[in-house]
Amino acid sequence: MKGLTQHALFWPATTLVLLLIVCASFNPSFLSLAWRDGHLYGNLVDILNRAAPLMVVSLGMTLVIAVRGLDISVGAVVAIAATVAALMIGGSFSASGNATSEHPLWLALGAALAVAAACGLWNGLLVVKAGMQPIVATLILMVAGRGIAQLLTGGQIITVYYPPFFALGNGYWLGVPVALWIALALWGMLHLALARTALGLFIRAIGGNPEAARVAGIRAASLTLCVYTFCSLAAGVAGLIISSNVKSADANNAGQLLELDAILAVTLGGTALTGGKFSLAGTVIGALIIQTLTSMIYSLGVPPEVNLVVKAALVFAVMLLQSPEFRGLVLRVARGAHS
Amino acid sequence: MNWRMNRRLLPLSITILLFISMAAFGAIRYDGFLSPQVFLNLLIDNAFLCVVAVGMTFVILSGGIDLSVGALIALTTMISAALLDAGWNPYVAMALVLVLGAAFGALQGLLIQQFQLAPFIVTLAGMFLARGCCYLISTESIPINDATYAAIAQARIPVGFDSSLTVGALIALAVVLAGMRVAHATEFGRTVYAIGGGESSARLMGLSVASTKVGVYLLSGFCSALGGVVMTFYMLSGYSLHAVGLELDAIAAVVIGGTLLSGGVGYVAGTLFGVLILGIIQTLIAFDGTLSSWWTKIVVGVLLLLFCLLQRLFEARTRKAA
């Protein structure tokens, strides 16, 4: 039992299960799954589907935080990637009913991801080469990035008329949402890369002590650069999913506050902000907690205004639980009550 | 010694120089730019930002960060509007929101200090909480019809040359002056610099690190509430979507003002010029008339980049010299 409570995933998983139990107790049909129109249907599927972009961004963020970094520009990168994709696809319905796109779909998606990766490379260079604090380095792109996205769109919402593109955010494959497949694939790939190769060890070493890692022969600089690039690339993927889901790109609002949700998901999952200790599965659970909370508030008929207050209370609670000082205080109080 | 002083003042002088050259550029390029009122408007339109940025300067000097300021401003406007709506005395309402703001900040500071939590996450949760409380009060904008508030909002204090300031702008100037005094001539100010320079050394020197750290966030919460009061004068309404993203503007103003985000180095006076530079960018874009508002973001981003690179250069030089 003790070993169980000390497992890194125990608290995040317990939180998620508790949330689901609360949902189910208020609404017994909450956990039910059905097969409709050739795909899975139900609140749980909905939560997984909606949480997919956040999962993707948070997975990238996990690695950045693991190397003692922080990337607050992911929301802006989402906007940029969505804008580039929407502008390049554009599309229109011809009289014959065949949709056409401005550029081939693969080219548009590739360009959007390439731009996103370039954003990450830029962040990484500022952190590694210029030696800036991560929060400042990514603040620059956070401020300017959204401006650039708005410049590209002229401040307008760009609508896409090209059904093949909509599959990313609305489609199903084998009955499961495509967005979820993308998130799962990314998680699987990362897990393999980090658990089956020395990469995970290197990242933990850099997060634990960057200088010691460098002296031990780990190419900390180039690895950190890769991590930032990957994080932005993940944000780009999320941008594609989001813009495909709403069939448009809104440079003003796409990915707004996503960086905060992503950092929150990572922290809820038990990854330490001080670096060196991370859990991909924890991050996925963290993203699910955030989305379950949102869905729960809507499905319980609670006014959505309460959402932010509940979220704040949850963050405070998790934060305190993770603090050794707080646990010590609670223990002391408990012992005092006994004696 | 003299040479060293100059060196420490270098980022501040660059900020001031940048402001002057931007003003000169505007004066040459656009008719009517070089009038006293245009410059006073910089202060009038950014008074709340200025007040908040002074509080943020102390937080950043101590090596922390406060993301809750924008949401706290919105909450202040909301509470003020709701209280006035309920028929409270305006001065009592003002005093109450200021106390609430300070208490909110102090609570965040206590969490950060007592439980060794990351300021980023604590104030992020504080931001959610403050915005959420706004929505709990009302999701709609609440107009303010109170006679005292309207009178203060419309008051113009003449300063000569056919130009005038608002009460909000005067408050902002007073906060900057008070901030400079606190930073450079009190024990609290010196301790803030010492914590930013190195927390454990500050503790070993016997400085009251714990209470100062809580005090810094208390101050920032108070400044946010005061900024909220100034914004209430400016907008004459309470709205949960007031000041969205203002925390970023405040951080940008502090950084452009020459304060190092790693803490320990910077001047409150620099922050005033940081705010003025953000303001003059918007004024230049407004005077131009053909540029869209998103250019503000891009220019601010570029300035942030330049200043951070400059700071790195400055730090590297200092390290070599030492």
> Which percent band covers the strand fraction of chain A?
5-15%
* Low-confidence region ranges of chain B: none
Topology-level CATH name of chain B: ABC transporter involved in vitamin B12 uptake, BtuC
Query: So what's the oligomer here?
Result: heterodimer
The neighbouring-strand order within the major sheet of chain A is 1-2
- Number of separate structural domains of chain A: 1
Strand content of chain B: under 5%
**Secondary-structure class of chain B:** mainly alpha
Beginning-to-end CA distance, first to last residue of chain B:
13 Å
Poorly predicted residue ranges of chain A:
none
Q: Could you tell me the number of beta strands of chain B?
A: 4
Shape of chain B: globular
Provide the helix percentage of chain B: over 70%
What is the number of helices of chain B? 14
Elements of chain A, N to C (H/E): HHEEHHEEHHEHEEHHHHEHHHH
Order of helices and strands of chain B: HHHHHHEHEEHHHHEHHH
Q: Helix/strand/pairing class of chain A, anyone?
A: mainly alpha
Strand order of the largest sheet of chain B: 1-4
Which CATH class of chain B applies here?
Mainly Alpha
List the helices and strands and how they pair.
The complex is a heterodimer of chains A (339) and B (322).
Chain A: H1 2-5, H2 10-26, E1 34-36, E2 39-41, H3 43-66, H4 74-89, E3 92-93, E4 99-100, H5 105-128, H6 134-153, E5 157-159, H7 163-170, E6 172-173, E7 176-177, H8 178-196, H9 199-208, H10 210-215, H11 220-246, E8 248-250, H12 258-268, H13 280-299, H14 306-322, H15 324-338
Antiparallel strand pairs in A: 1-2, 3-4, 5-8, 6-7
Helix pairs in contact in A: 2-13, 3-8, 3-11, 3-12, 3-13, 4-5, 4-6, 4-11, 5-6, 5-11, 7-11, 12-13, 13-14
Chain B: H1 2-29, H2 36-45, H3 47-61, H4 69-85, H5 90-114, H6 119-137, E1 142-143, H7 147-154, E2 157-158, E3 164-165, H8 167-185, H9 187-197, H10 199-204, H11 209-235, E4 237-238, H12 246-256, H13 268-288, H14 294-321
Antiparallel strand pairs in B: 1-4, 2-3
Helix pairs in contact in B: 1-13, 2-8, 2-13, 3-8, 3-9, 3-11, 3-12, 3-13, 4-5, 4-6, 4-11, 5-6, 5-11, 8-9, 8-11, 9-11, 12-13, 13-14
